[in-house]
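Entry, Tuesday afternoon. Goal for today is a structural model of the target with pyridoxal-5'-phosphate bound, before we commit to ordering more compound. Inputs were pasted exactly as handed over by J.K., no edits. I checked the ligand SMILES twice against the vendor sheet because last time a stereocentre got dropped in transcription.
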Amino acid sequence: MKLWIPGPTEVRPSLLAECARAMIGHRSDAMSKLHERIDPHLRLAFGLAESSGSEVAVHTCSATGLMESSLHGTGCRVLCVANGSFSKRWADIAQVLGFETVVLKKAFGEAASPEEIERALVEKGPFDALTLVSNETSSGVRTPLAGVASVMRRHPNTLMLVDVVSYLAGMPIDFDAHGIDFAFAGSQKALALPPGITVFAASQRYLERVRKGQRPSYYLDAVRVLDGHRERKTPATPCIPLYFALAQQLEDISNGVTLPEGGNALRGAAAWSARYAKHERMYRATAAWAARHGLEYIPAPEHRSWTVSCIRKGPLDIVKFLAELKKRGQTISNGYGDLKDISFRIGHMGDHTEADLERLIASMDEVLLAEAAR
Ligand SMILES: Cc1ncc(COP(=O)(O)O)c(C=O)c1O
C-alpha cells in the first residue's frame, strides 16, 4: 500500500532499519556523535548560513508541543494568523496558555496577505509575537514568507514564529533572510520519518528575549531543550531510534541519495534545492491531472503548496473514490477540519518518487474512467 496522506508519510526501509539499531546511552559519546551528525544538515534544511548565529535543535515530542514551546517567554500579546486547522490550533494554545490573543481569521483555503498582517499589527498591536503556519496541511495553502518578512521588518519588537511542519524539506526556507525567530517541523511530514520528534531553529534575538521571559514549563521550555542540545545533554531521555533515522535521512538528503536518477551526484545545499524542485514538479503533475478532470484546487495558484495538494471534490463521491484507490494499493486522504468531505488531499512530500506519482495518477485515472463508464 502506498501512503499519500499528508503525514505520516512513507518511510524508506533503510530508515526503518535505523530505528531498529541497538540502543545507546543518551549520555554516551555515541549519542554526542549522533547529535553532531544531525546539526550541519539541519542548518541546511532551515537555510542557515554557516556564519548564522541562529541555532538548531531536536526535541522528543510532536510538533504540537513545539507550537506551545515557541510561545513560552515571548511576552503576553500574540497575533495568530488562523487560516486552517493547525493555525487555529496554535491560536487555541496561545489562549490556553493565557496569552492575550488576537486572531487574524481567514477562510480555510486562503492565506493572509502581508497588507492584512500589517494592518492587524498596526491597528491591534503592539504584539510580542506573530504565529504563522507557512503551509496549512489542512488546506494545502502556502503563505509566501518573503512578503510577511518585509512587513515584520517594520515591527522589530514582534517575534516571527513560523510552523514549517509540512514545509521543511519540501520547500526552501530562508530562516535568516526572512528574519524568522522560531520555526519547527515534525519528523513525519516532508522529512519522511516516523512521528515522534520535532526539529526546530531559533534566532539569537528570540533566545535573548525568551531567556528573560517567564517560561512556565520544563519539558516544553525551548531554551532548556536548545541548551541541552548544544551541550549534548538533552533535558530528558530522547527518542534515540528516531535520532538514528533523522541523522541518516539528513545525510541521505545532503548526499543526493533521495533524488531521482541523475540528481544523486549533487551534494549539500544543491541537493536540498533539487529535492525542493522534485516536489514542485510533483505538485505541477498533480495540478495537471486535476485540470484534466475539471477538478479545482482549494487554494489560489499563488498559494498552492509543493508538498500537499488539496482539491475540491467536484462531482466525486470522496468516500467511494478513496475506497477504490485503496483497492488499487493507493491511500490518499479526505479533507481535514472544515474541508472534510468537500475536498481530498494528496501528500506528494517526503521520499515518494515522480514514478510513484505517475502510478498514483494512473490509478486515479482508472477509477474516474470506470466511474464515467457506469
Ligand atoms: C501544519 C501542521 N502543524 C502542526 C501539526 C501538528 O503536528 P503533530 O500532530 O505532529 O503534533 C500538523 C500535523 O499534521 C501540521 O500539519
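The CA atoms of residues 10 and 81 lie 30 Å apart.
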